[in-house]
Design a protein that fits this description.
The complex is a heterodimer of chains A (343) and B (412). By secondary structure, chain A is mostly helical. Chain A is built from 15 helices and four strands. In chain B, 58% of the residues are buried. Chain B is an alpha/beta fold and 412 residues long. The chains are: A mainly alpha (343), B alpha/beta (412). The interface between A and B is large, with 58 and 74 residues. β2 of chain A pairs antiparallel with β4 (120-123) of chain B.
């Protein structure tokens, strides 16, 4: 294709990408370098129905508006937002490193900082859910593929349900079931004989619940991709393997899985990205006390009564960097494979 | 507490003059658009305003629990998306900060003669909002269960602990107590209530510097931890809906809940007669030898957006006055603890009124209180769960507050 034709061909996509990807990214990075204006505080007399009048600190709206007029983006803070307590917390980490007695103590102090606490949960969630989704998705796909034709349709539909249900609704349903008065929660109390057992109270059990939910919700995605892949496995190779006396397991191990390898890479990529941005279940399970994620911080910053755009933007940029680091090994590998094939 | 007296006097007046029903509100043309929280009392106010529609007057409302997240953006637009915003003690603060609402003195002088003077929220002498109802968390208890356990109705939180232990010892209930202790806003509100009851404050006087990491703060946390020790282990997920459901299911003997829930609890829907008839409403208990009830008083009211035309502002104010007429208030008497004329305090108001008479403090209106509230809500649950000391939890909350206050421009 001549370069000129190619250019015109790709132009609409380029414009869309610039508009919907590049521009927002640039604006988020710019926003993250600024914080809100200084609030000019003055003493005012405040009267309400309960105590009559009293002196309270208020914001001088006019003076603050003038500051805003002068600098519409806010105060320039450079990378200050990135390094403060609510983000990378450099000062606090350094302090913890100096004062801690041993690595365990340092880890404990690190887990007291919101960003690292969230990162610990997010990474655990990502690295437990992703492999489980792949294994479980493949298992379901193989199972469904072996079913008689009559049952395939209904089984596929039922298997996809967890993905069809809106994440928030799905997590709320499970949340009510694991309530101390719900069906799973009270059954567990009955089984263990511990009336104080609560899946919502202890951090470990909350993590477990969220991970179980994550696998339940995402496994259908793995399943449907692998099921589609299974339809393309060459039947000659499989038949040849049967003639050679390969067992069902050997056929899966040496024929099906190698054939599906590119799909595994695809599912891994998507799942790493999705799971790193875990958000809905944290809201649905009211789990913020025990498990938070970077996405949850962005939500909290923006929905606070004093919305903090700079802080939310900084967390967004850190999330993008986190996703990039996670995906890098997979992408590098894919790139090498691509180059090898081309060579 | 003089406002209860004026309320009573005004309602008597209203009864005398209340026969002149205003069928048409006589407002004239204009657009009234309302944004606010979603609960029965506000729905009643909106219905009252909608009754004025016609003759070129349109009334539209968006009542949503997400109102706080929309308000600044919606009122910053010019013209503003809404002419009326229902606010509470805390949600008015960002609107004041951003200079998005207009002084109401002229409108009050022209159309608001019927208001009680105590309803006018004044800042530096200018009326910025008109309050029409009040709310506070207070004690609910089950007289039958307390009698069965042989304890008196508690007057202090120390009494609540003793009564809870007695109920537990008698084998009546394993988890007799509940507060709205869901991590985040609710839990922080319990801290605020208890901390003020202990005589504490949140900031260094005259500044936005935090002042909670001290002996009072530790005592506050210890009391909260002792209380949740008698709560169902799921207590970190208890919001108002959860505690109300537990109460209606008859699984609680004592609970600190919002006054605005009393109507729903006493109406008997979703509960049994045995529970409803034994449900008693009392003022919030005192704590730590303090004299004032450990709760905060909240008002709900309305403000008028700055970025709307004067005509729409006048129409909006008049529509609100029509909606808050003594007749409408009387017709919705038990939906809230009204501050507006026409109200006769009913049984559902007993807890709020007792708390106010006891001298409970209003929720702090300091501009950075919202950030303090958020920081508390995110940092004290670890102490309650036992994974951190009280001092550490308070230090974390202060540090989180300082970081957020710097990002928001309150501290340098």
């Amino acid at each position: 294709m001549p370069h000129r034709t190619f250019f015109w061909f790709i132009l609409p996509s380029l414009v869309a990408m610039a508009l919907f990807i590049a521009f927002p990214l640039v604006s988020v990075v710019a926003q993250s370098l600024f914080v809100e204006h200084e609030q000019v505080l003055i003493e005012s007399e405040v009267c309400d129905p309960f105590t009559g009048c009293r002196k309270e600190l208020t914001v001088d709206a006019v003076a603050t508006a003038q500051l805003r007029e002068a600098q519409p983006l806010g105060r320039f803070n450079g990378l200050g937002t990135y390094t403060d307590l609510n983000h990378l917390a450099f000062a606090e980490v350094a302090e913890a490193w100096r004062t801690s007695e041993g690595l365990v103590d340092f880890g404990g102090q690190l887990m007291n900082l919101p960003f690292y606490k969230a990162l610990a949960f997010t990474l655990t969630y990502t690295f437990v859910v992703t492999p489980l989704v792949i294994v479980l998705g493949l298992a379901i796909a193989l199972g469904v593929n072996g079913l008689p034709k009559l049952f395939k349709g209904p089984t596929i539909f039922v298997s996809l349900l967890p993905m069809i249900v809106t994440p928030l609704i799905g997590s709320l349903i499970l949340f009510w079931m694991i309530d101390a008065r719900g069906i799973i929660g009270s059954s567990l109390q009955e089984l263990t004989g511990d009336p104080n057992l609560s899946l919502k109270a202890s951090p470990a059990l909350t993590w477990l619940t969220l991970i179980v939910y994550g696998v339940w919700h995402s496994a259908p995605f793995g399943f449907i991709v692998f099921y589609a892949g299974l339809q393309t496995v060459p039947s000659e190779t499989l038949e040849a393997a049967i003639v050679d006396g390969a067992s069902r397991w050997e056929r899966i191990r040496y024929v099906v899985i190698p054939h599906m390898a590119p799909l595994v890479v695809f599912v891994t990529l998507i799942q790493l990205m999705d799971n790193f941005r875990v958000f809905e279940p944290i809201v649905g399970f009211s789990a913020a006390a025990n498990a938070t994620s970077l996405s949850y911080f962005i939500y909290a910053d923006l929905t606070d009564i004093n919305a903090r755009f700079g802080s939310a933007a900084a967390t967004s940029v850190l999330t993008v960097i986190g996703v990039a680091i996670l995906l890098a090994p997979v992408l590098v590998r894919t790139w090498r494979d691509f180059n090898r094939k081309r060579a | 507490m003089q406002f209860w007296k004026t309320t009573a006097a005004a309602s008597a007046l209203a009864l005398l003059s209340g026969t002149t029903a205003m069928a048409a509100c006589g407002i004239g043309a204009g657009n009234v658009t309302i944004l606010g929280n979603d609960f029965p009392a506000l729905q009643a106010v909106v219905a009252g305003a909608k009754a004025c529609e016609g003759d070129g007057l349109t009334v539209e409302a968006n009542l949503t629990t997400e109102h706080d997240k929309l308000q600044v953006a919606a009122l910053t637009a010019d013209p503003a998306q809404y002419s009326v915003k229902f606010v509470a003690t805390s949600s008015i603060v960002p609107l004041l900060q951003n200079d998005l609402i207009r002084p109401l003195d002229e409108l009050v002088a022209q159309y608001g003669q019927g208001l009680n003077p105590s309803q006018l929220i004044k800042i530096d002498g200018k009326v910025m909002a008109v309050a029409f109802m009040s709310n506070a968390q207070h004690l609910y208890y089950r007289s039958d269960i307390l009698a069965q356990a042989g304890v008196e109705a508690p007057a202090t939180y120390e009494d609540v602990l003793a009564a809870a232990q007695a109920i537990k010892d008698a084998g009546i209930m394993e988890h007799p107590v509940a507060l709205n202790t869901m991590t985040g806003w609710n839990l922080a509100e319990e801290f605020v209530n208890m901390h003020l009851g202990m005589g504490g404050s949140f900031f260094e006087p005259g500044t936005a510097q935090p002042a909670i990491n001290n002996e009072t703060g530790v005592k506050t946390l210890e009391m909260l931890k002792a209380l949740v020790g008698y709560s169902n282990p799921d207590y970190l997920t208890f919001d108002s809906n959860a505690t109300q459901a537990l109460w209606e299911a008859g699984e609680l003997a004592m609970a600190t809940m919002w006054g605005s829930r009393a109507g729903g609890i006493l109406d008997g829907e979703g509960s049994t007669d045995a529970v409803v008839s034994a449900t008693m409403l009392a003022g919030a208990p005192t704590v730590g030898g303090g004299a004032t009830p450990a709760t905060t008083l909240w008002w709900d009211g309305f403000v008028i957006a700055k970025n709307v035309s004067d005509e729409d502002a006048a129409a909006s104010f008049q529509a609100m006055m029509a909606a808050l007429s003594p007749e409408n208030i009387a017709a919705n008497n038990d939906a809230a603890v009204w501050l507006a004329p026409g109200y006769t305090p009913g049984p559902a108001a007993a807890g709020v009124i007792a708390s106010a008479r006891g001298g409970a403090q209003p929720y702090p209106m300091a501009p950075s209180m919202g950030l303090m509230h958020t920081a508390l809500g995110n940092n004290i649950s670890e102490y309650l769960q036992g994974s951190e000391s009280a001092e550490q939890a308070l230090a974390d909350a202060e540090a989180a507050y300082v970081a957020a206050a710097k990002e928001a421009g309150f501290l340098n």
